[in-house]
Give the backbone structure.
Amino acid sequence: MNYKIGVIKGDGIGPEIVTEAMKVLDKVAETYHHKFNYTQLLMGGCSIDANGVPLTEETIQACKDSDAVLMGSIGGNTTTSPWYKLPANLRPEAGLLKLRKSLGLFANLRPCVLYPELRQACTLREDISIQGFDMLIMRELTGGLYFGERRTEEVDGVMTAVDTLSYNENEIRRIAVKAFEVAMKRRKKVTSVDKANVLDSSRLWRKVVEDVAKEYPEVTLEHALVDSTAMQIVKNPAHFDVMVTENMFGDILSDEAAMVTGSLGMLPSASLNETKFGLYEPSGGSAPDIAGKNIANPIAAILSGAMLLRYSLDLQEEADAVEHAVQKVLQEGFRTGDIMSDGCKQVSCSEMGSLIAERI
Ligand code: IPM
Ligand code: MN
């Protein structure tokens, strides 16, 4: 089959890791007789440099014209990069938020799995890491604090900044439904994370999630507060199956959960709308400090490619092949610097991509 894939390499390590993900996708195409037609698109800092804005209408349209979009990462060093001298709505991150909103990508799936081979890279105590874990964070991606009204102004001579956290019941319901649907295909447990002891938006969140749960009697639902969840992730990560939460809580908890898998460089993500279309990107950032050195870990980008095959192109066997190839190189002891441990063989970003592609 022929597929159209939009490619946003982005900034920092983005171009390096996406190049490796494409290397692996090309091997999939060759092995399984598909054709992937890539369209390279600009977004983030590179788009600011080329077009003066982080996201153009052409990029949005080209994404809409694709079956799926593969993305690297965007943004730079927030204290030194000239991009951060621009007004907030013209900075790299504003491009990503606008793209998510324009494409209606409300559901962000971030699977956090501790591979047995990476137990040594896990930052948790051995008695905890030995139990392993496999959780899926379902982050709401187009609402909440990141999309509410915001302003900075002087009030009675005092500089004051306001951000708004707002959710309506429909926004909560659709993400809750996604969470219960994937839980049915997993261990049938949903933890809904909120701050209902303080926030109105969380109290509505809880109520709507409870309503949705009635449609899924086989799934066990529990509610947890976000602060306590942050603690549970390092205390007993095996407790979680599917975690569903609002935009900012999910942003924060997914970095934490990713880190306990060994490295942020291991965590892929899929951002989906109501259709099969999706945007696939590592959960980690652009890591400007290591950009251009060929030392970044491309596994999150490669696994994002696997999610693209699975969710947008319905190519399950091909997606399995990519995931198995990743596991195989880890079993064989190959590691990038971020997940390196004693007795393993350290490889570069491009070597890691080639090793995985060879195992498809
Ligand atoms: C992420 C990133 C983004 C977010 C930034 C770059 C806007 O941190 O995908 O987690 O906060 O969503
Ligand atoms: Mn983040």
User: Anything to note?
Assistant: The CA atoms of residues 266 and 300 lie 4 Å apart. The pocket of manganese (II) ion (ligand 2) is lined by residues 251, 255 (CB under 6 Å). The longest strand covers residues 2-10.
